[in-house]
Amino acid sequence: MKKILLVTGMAILLAACGGGNPGGGNTGGGNSAASNSGSAPANPAKPAGGAIEVKIKDKTYKLEPKAQWLFSEDWTVNMPDGKAVPTAMRYLVAANYELETTYGRSNTMKKIEAADGVRIMVAIEDKADVKKDAPPTAGDYGPKTEEFQKLNNIQIFTKESGMTPAANITGSNSDNKGGVKITAVDGDTVTGEFDFSSTDYAIKGPFTAKIWKEAKK
Question: Which end of the chain is less congested by CB atoms within 10 angstroms, N or C?
Fold first, then answer.
């Protein structure tokens, strides 16, 4: 089913972070991200399971993770019948350089210094009626057009691209194959695998990401 696209809120959020293109493929009826102030700096989950291969056209990066995160935002999908259905948008972030965080997803835009530096941010939409603080739903998130539990958007950043994505891929593109699989959620750690490919891009490999949570006030 098609839905109404309202991405203004996310555009403002990423623009404020110097993120350039505001999550291009992110879709949904809108979101309301909670305030991230007052959170203590946190360290990502320790890398596990090997490197993530990131392909951008004719160049391939070996992303040996030094940082892996999962951030969540409350999200609303406006259905064709006018019903607003809540869900959670999950953002998986992996980088081959140190990337600590204090303010959740909005603090993941650290400048890439190394020539072989690469960072990915993969947005997946959880099932219906899920809040951001709930554990992510295990299972496959593929490039489908219907709701819910789907691949929403992929961004790839390199040293050359700076704060603008070198690749900004809408999840439902017809040439996309595969996506993301969450295999387990254990406390504040989520494990799974990237297995995405399209004509010009690919992301393949395991992840073990720490679930970022706002500090309680």
Answer: C
Is 148 within 8 Å of 126 (Cβ atoms)? yes
Q: What are phi and psi of 142, to 5 degrees?
A: -105, 180
Domain locations in the chain as residue ranges: 8-34+45-211
DSSP lists the bridge partners of residue 179 as 195
- Beta-bridge partners for 125: 89, 150
What confidence tier does 90 reach under pLDDT thresholds 50, 70, 90? very high
Q: How far apart are CA 48 and CA 96, in angstroms?
A: 13
Q: How far apart are CA 174 and CA 164, in angstroms?
A: 24
CB contact at 8 A, 143 and 151? yes
Q: Which of 63-67, 107-111, 121-125 is predicted with the least confidence, judged by mean pLDDT?
A: 107-111
Residue 30 or 135, more confident:
135
Tokens for 104? Answer: 């959740």
pTM: 0.78
- What is the model's pLDDT at position 105? 64
Provide the 8-state DSSP code for 143: S
The phi, psi pair for 154, rounded to 5°, reads -130, 130
Look at phi and psi of residue 50 and say left if phi exceeds 0, alpha if psi is from -120 to 50, else beta. left
Phi-psi region of 187 (alpha: psi -120 to 50; beta: other; left: phi over 0): left
